[in-house]
Write a structure and sequence with these properties.
The structure holds 2 protein chains of 2 kinds. Chain A is built from 5 helices and 3 strands. By secondary structure, chain A is of the alpha+beta class. Chain A has one domain. Chain A has a 3-stranded antiparallel sheet, with helices on one face. Chain A starts with a helix and ends with a strand. In chain A, 28% of the residues are buried. The model of chain A has no long low-confidence stretch (mean pLDDT 82). Chain B is α+β, with helices and mostly antiparallel strands. The longest helix of chain B is centred in the first third of the chain and has 77 residues. Chain B is elongated. Classes of the chains: A alpha+beta, B alpha+beta. Chains A and B meet through helix 2 and strand 3 of A and helix 2, helix 4 and strand 13 of B.
């Protein structure tokens, strides 16, 4: 340690270059981290958008409950390469509607009839999870991809 | 510090490291900025999505309600047939008047004031509101309601603000759930509006109102930017974007209302028939105005920053007559773009809120709710400010109020036992007390200031358009 100090204090040739060499990886790492965070945020925004569009399609009756995951995948558009299709996990439950949907199921036949014909609206509440695999640096921490999750709910008529 | 400076001065080996540290600092600042911006963008996307989904959900309930109107109109038609058959069979001796029963049910369910044939309180509009609140909670929209003056803490569900049919309703009925329906009168069947004709309407960007003009109220715009653009006569200074709307014939009897009135058929106006849209062309819209809290800034563990979002939907569909059950489609929900600050009624209302200096700055939801709850600037809204006052509560605008006692942690005051009803004093025959309000004032003694009144039941009834005399009487002793 003493000899290094002596060398550094007495000989400044190549010293700056050495220090720069030591610092460059740190700076590159920071810059790369920023870029990767940008990509990550971009993917997350696209994921939220895809979920929202799928819910809107469900509201219009264009998507059935069992096709919700496929609809999300389609709405990811050009960002599909950043995700793993197999990692989409959609857990759906009936939306907590007051009178529509499954609210009348507990009342038996009459309840089913009322909710089916009078309160002919119902909906779904989803929790969607997906893994984003774009980021090699985050890959060290998340080997299966960075998990994204969101929750959303919507009603539609006719049910 | 001096040693460090001397070391850096004398030893060039520290300079690059220092520069690197400086760059790292800049990178970290950039990184934090990037993180905040990215997170903020995600939250914004979620806020918009949540507001849109809540709006679409209310639209679904609203559309179902309009379909129910068709069902009840069909029931009304059946009831009318039964009435006619009964009257004919009994040669006018018996009129079951089933149609009136159905119409009463319609007025209570769908919120139509039978006296004014305008909006009223209804069960189904309240259901729309409740479902909207429920869905807003599922989509994580939250509002911070202003606490009542006594600062009672009680759990409140997330309550968004809904504006119902803001283009065509007045401010009161924007805030109270309504469906923009009315009873069609027999005279309406003779009205020219129900003939196949072209009606112009415009939706100005600056006003946010939809107004309707018939072709004879308009004229060709000279030197217009667009082919076929029209002006409203006498209003050339306004920028009007007129769009022709063809109102299809609904199959009713064609005629002229003026002809009917001239020939002594005024009674037709007072004969209610089925429920129809209050506007022609119909206008059923709902605006959701809410906020989504973000975790960008927390104080005492609570999110203090939130996105204010507004979303509007419009229902697209046909008529509400019974025969539309056969050939009419379900009403469809369409999201439409909205700029809340462009609505004049909301803008004027907002400008009356203290602390909101300028429009078009969007006020916080709390500001509007505070105004609704504690101010009386809404025409027709019963005032709740200064309730229980001259003894006003600190924090309200009336009077100095009582000094606030410090609260003791863990100490709950027991509720006072209810006093039994005191027996009424027997009246003395021939003796009556004078009306105190009619007493003459005594010179030299100032009159007590008028106490701000607690809104009476009749005030509330008037506000909701209900005849106070029709309210059930509260029994004595309560």
């Amino acid at each position: 340690m003493k000899s290094i100090k002596l060398v550094l204090s007495n000989n400044s040739k190549g010293q700056a270059a050495t220090e720069l060499l030591l610092c460059i990886p740190v700076l590159v790492l920071l810059a790369a981290g920023m870029v990767q965070f940008c990509l990550l945020f971009q993917s997350k925004v696209q994921f939220e958008y895809a979920c929202g569009e799928s819910a809107r399609a469900y509201n219009l009756g264009k998507v059935q409950p069992d096709g919700f995951a496929d609809s999300i995948w389609e709405n990811l558009n050009s960002y599909q390469s950043r995700f793993e299709k197999g990692s989409i996990h959609v857990s759906a439950e009936a939306s907590q509607s007051l009178l529509g949907g499954d609210a009348g199921q507990k009342l038996g036949f009459i309840g089913k009839y009322v909710t089916g014909s009078v309160f002919n609206y119902g909906g779904q509440q989803w929790t969607v999870k997906i893994n984003c695999k774009i980021v090699p640096l985050f890959g060290v921490l998340f080997p299966h991809g960075v998990p994204f999750s969101t929750q959303l709910a919507v009603l539609r008529h006719p049910q | 510090m001096i040693k460090l400076r001397r070391f850096i001065k004398e030893n060039p080996s520290g300079q690059v490291l220092l520069a690197t540290l400086f760059f790292c600092f800049i990178f970290m600042a950039l990184f934090i900025g990037l993180y905040k911006a990215g997170f903020s963008y995600i939250e914004k996307e979620k806020a918009m999505r949540s507001a849109d989904l809540t709006t679409l959900s209310i639209g679904a309930v609203y559309a179902n309600g309009l379909q129910l109107v068709r069902y009840t109109n069909a029931a009304l038609m059946v009831a009318a047939i039964v009435d006619v058959v009964t009257i004919a069979a009994t040669e006018g001796a018996v009129d079951p008047d089933l149609r009136k029963v159905v119409q009463t049910v319609q007025s209570w369910v769908f919120g139509i004031n039978k006296d004014t044939n305008g909006p009223g309180l209804g069960v189904y509009p309240l259901l729309m509101w409740a479902e909207g609140v429920e869905l807003a909670g599922n989509n994580h929209l939250r509002n911070t309601w202003p606490l009542p003056p006594n600062k009672l803490q009680f759990p409140l569900p997330p309550l968004p603000m809904f504006f119902f049919n803001p283009e065509t309703s007045d401010l009161k009925w924007m805030l109270i759930p309504s469906m923009r329906l009315k009873f069609r009168s027999a005279a309406d069947l003779l009205n020219d509006n129900y003939k196949d004709e072209e009606v112009y309407y415009y939706h100005t960007n600056g006003q946010g109102q939809t107004l309707y003009y018939s072709p004879d109220q308009t004229e060709e715009a000279t030197n217009s930017q667009h082919a076929g653009q029209k002006w409203v006569k006498g209003k050339r200074n306004l920028f009007l974007k007129l769009t022709p709307v063809v109102t299809p014939a609904t199959g009713e009897k064609k005629g002229s209302l003026s002809w009917a009135l001239k020939n002594g058929l005024n009674f037709l106006v007072n004969i209610p028939l089925d429920v129809v849209h209050a506007d022609n062309p119909h206008n059923h819209t709902v605006v959701v105005y809410d906020q989504l809290p973000t975790s960008l800034q927390k104080i005492n563990g609570k999110d203090t920053l939130s996105y204010h979002v507004a979303s509007e939907m419009k229902l697209v569909g046909g008529g509400l007559a019974a025969w539309n059950l056969v050939d009419g489609d379900h009403f469809r929900v369409r999201l439409i773009s909205i700029d809340l600050t462009q609505f004049p009624k909301i803008r004027d209302f907002v400008s009356s809120i203290p602390g909101v200096p300028s429009v078009p700055s969007i006020p916080k939801v709390q500001d509007i709710l505070q105004q609704v709850l504690h101010q009386s600037s809404i025409p027709g809204f019963p005032s709740t400010s200064g309730t229980f006052s001259g003894a006003s509560v600190p924090g309200t605008s009336n009077g100095p109020g009582f000094p606030q006692l410090p609260s003791l942690p863990g100490v709950n005051l027991p509720s006072l036992p209810q006093l039994p009803n005191l027996p009424q004093a027997p009246s003395i025959p021939g003796v009556s007390l004078p009306d105190m309000s009619q007493l003459p004032s005594i010179p030299g003694i100032p009159q007590p200031p008028g106490l701000p009144g607690i809104p009476s039941l009749s005030d509330v009834a008037n506000f909701f358009g209900i005849n106070p005399n029709s309210l059930p009487q509260v029994p004595a002793g309560i």
